[in-house]
Amino acid sequence: MQVRLVNRSLRLVAVVSMAAAAVTGIVASSASASTTAPSRAAAHAATAHAAAAPAMTPRRAPSGCNNYNLCEYNAGNGGNLCFQTRNSENWPSACADHNEGEYNRGSRAVYLYSQTGETGCYYLLYSGHYLLYNANDKFQGPNQACKNEKLEHHLASSKFV
Hints:
It is built from 3 helices and 8 strands; from the N terminus they run H-H-E-E-E-E-E-E-E-H-E. By secondary structure, the chain is α+β, with helices and mostly antiparallel strands. It folds into 2 domains: 1-37; 42-50 and 61-160, Crystallins (Gamma-B Crystallin, domain 1).
């Protein structure tokens, strides 16, 4: 009887070890896949980038942003809420070009622009999505020069679409 219990225990340990190895392999392969070829949706997801993120990253959206608003934060990781708006507009001078993160709680997507008057380089932030560290985010267009420029300290207006 004791031999059977030992054999069952050994089999259980072997199965658990193999399952843990399989999960580790899946996690590792999905992590490398997401860093090499992000999907369009992943590019807009709210992910804290490891290069600039502090040791602790949030597991939820930044706080303080009311429903249906675009919120701009002057500190990364959703810190120091500077302003929030429901309208397409130029940003207040205390917030424009001081940006570190944004959260779109509106029901529509919003274009973030590098210049006042909804002009210049742009980034399309989908409804329900947020950016935690603009130092890791780049404009999406309209040209290659913009695509090489980081959003950090380069936003001045927004337009809901």
